């Protein structure tokens, strides 16, 4: 197991909640509050209704299933990341209480696409950069395997698509991930898990990350 930081984070403290004074179009996430109307083929229209749309500064992202071939089969590299949005579920009424705190969420490598990342070559380039930054492996863009089309996580509110990819790092030396210096990367842990064990953990809710489960399923389908 590797760690990008030795800091042990035990809590995330809210210093200020400035939601009531913040503008919708500033910050890491931009909320567009719209009034919309459905236009129908017969020329009629629905009543006016409200729609909230959440955009990132960079529209889409790429995820990378970093894997290697070992004596027991395929193994996948995961990261334990601080995830405030999941953590702040605590204290809220849940339909299905699970007792988890979600200070950290286990997931695969991922990162936002930059404006210069265009087309499939752009996806491969950004995926290789994220693998170097978050996993410590030097890979070439042409080594990146695209796992089909991008997908929405929550299309009712989020405009973001995630484009899944994978890369085989069998036999490659792993360096120390440099990360991006964000406090959200404090105490990030990396570990290898057998691919089917990880899939089972996703289905049991122990790894509650959709891109991880979907990427595993797509990789296994391609290798079947």
Task: Please provide a brief summary of the model.
The protein has 4 helices and 11 strands. The protein is α+β, with helices and mostly antiparallel strands and 224 residues long.
Verbal overview:
This is ADP-ribose pyrophosphatase. Residues 57-215 form the Nudix hydrolase domain. The chain is built from four helices and eleven strands. The protein is of the alpha+beta class. It has a single domain, classed as Nucleoside Triphosphate Pyrophosphohydrolase (Alpha-Beta Complex). Strands 1, 4, 5, 6, 7, 8, 9, 10 and 11 form a nine-stranded mixed beta sheet that branches. Strands 2-3 form a two-stranded antiparallel ribbon. Helix 3 (195-204) crosses helix 4. The model has no long low-confidence stretch (mean pLDDT 93).
User: Helix content range of the residues, please?
Assistant: 10-25%
* CATH topology grouping: Nucleoside Triphosphate Pyrophosphohydrolase
Termini gap: 29 Å
Radius of gyration: 20 Å
Low-confidence stretches: none
CATH class: Alpha Beta
Distinctive features:
11 strands; single chain; NUDIX_hydrolase_dom; two-stranded antiparallel sheet; Nucleoside Triphosphate Pyrophosphohydrolase; about 220 residues; alpha+beta; nine-stranded mixed beta sheet
Show the helix and strand layout.
Layout: E1 2-3, E2 30-36, E3 49-55, E4 61-70, E5 73-82, H1 84-87, E6 104-107, E7 109-112, H2 119-135, E8 145-146, E9 151-152, E10 161-168, E11 189-194, H3 195-204, H4 210-223
Parallel strand pairs: 4-10
Antiparallel strand pairs: 1-11, 2-3, 4-5, 4-7, 5-6, 5-11, 8-10, 9-10
